[in-house]
Amino acid sequence: MSTVLNINRFIIPNDVVVSLSTVYRWIGKNGFFEETVKTDLNRIVQATVERDAYFLLKILDLNVTDSRARLIITKNSNPRTKDETALFRLKELLLQIQENYREIRHQSNDLLDLANFLFSHYHEIKFTYEETDKKTVLKSQANRSKRLILDKINEQADEINEKKSFEKLVLYLNLFIDFYNIAPFTERNKEVSLILLLLLLLKADLEAFRYVSFFELLNNNLSEFKTEVKNASFNWKEGFAQTMGFIRFMLRLVINAYEKAYDIIKDYQFDTNLNKGYNIKNTILKLPQIFTKDEIRILHPFVSDSTINRTLIRMRDEGLIKPLGKGRSAKWIRITQEKDYGKNQLS
């Protein structure tokens, strides 16, 4: 039985109210985050989408090698297999969600279209049915489409949000549990539920997930997530679902995401206030003697490739480093001596 349809009986305990207060204080910083990054927001969101796609690939256990995943996610390489096609479409959908989450709907038909966009190259996905207590001559007439159940729940959620009669984030987390347990499609319900969860979080104004990969955090806490979803689903059909443990888990995840986003914003401010090339040179001098561009990108995620390349070339010309190969995955070696570090750092 739907938790959303019975939300009027839902009582939020004091510790969850405190966590929600923390979340809303962070939501109040959304404007500060966006104003700080300004024109670089699209590049930051693109990087988040790439990480989301990679870690969702891991969560869904798609059969795609890391090298192929990198090409598909970062270079839009043409997919060769069904799983690679799913990854290609996942990335495209994640970008659409990030750019248009306020306008994207989550009604039954919208979610069915989403499911088929991602996975119809395996099989066409349709709504499934559930048995009712209705007595009819034909058994098929006693079944009702789960689309009707989903529509009723979404209508209730929309009405609650319009009247502002219940806290939005807790409502949306209960909506996710409802969708998970209704499992309205013939297949791929769990995959769609994860996409729906990200969409609902963004609709609840949790803009930390524009700067921090939601699916990376989820992958790092996947065992606990699965346990809490399972616990929240226990006795769901009987109308006695206990979703509070899942809500507490998600609130911790959200607060963690905002803390990480804040660190990213501080690093961004530091990088923009100082010479970026100097910062990259300083980083290279502190890296292991043999290093790659990827190691630099990890420490400076919002510095462009062209800036990194210019710094590498300048340091090569200065005789501080030299390449150990060619191509984007080539390694570099630092040829400065330990005693020269302080001098190079100030040069």
What does this molecule look like?
- By secondary structure, the protein is mainly alpha-helical.
- The protein has helices at residues 14-27, 30-37, 41-60, 66-75, 82-100, 108-119, 146-163, 168-182, 189-203, 214-220, 222-233, 244-273, 276-286, 293-299, 305-317, 341-346, and strands at residues 129-131, 143-145, 290-292, 321-323, 331-334.
- It starts with 13 loop residues before the first helix and ends with a helix.
The dominant shape is globular
Note the main sheet: 3 strands, antiparallel
How far the N terminus sits from the C terminus, by CA atoms, comes to: 68 Å
Classification by helices and strands? mainly alpha
User: Which strand order spans the largest sheet, edge to edge or round the barrel?
Assistant: 3-5-4
Strand-residue proportion = under 5%
Radius of gyration: 24 Å
Low-pLDDT residue spans? 338-347
* Portion of residues within helices: 55-70%
Give the rounded overall mean pLDDT.
90
Overall number of strands: 5
How many separate helices? 16
Order of helical and strand elements: HHHHHHEEHHHHHHHEHHEEH
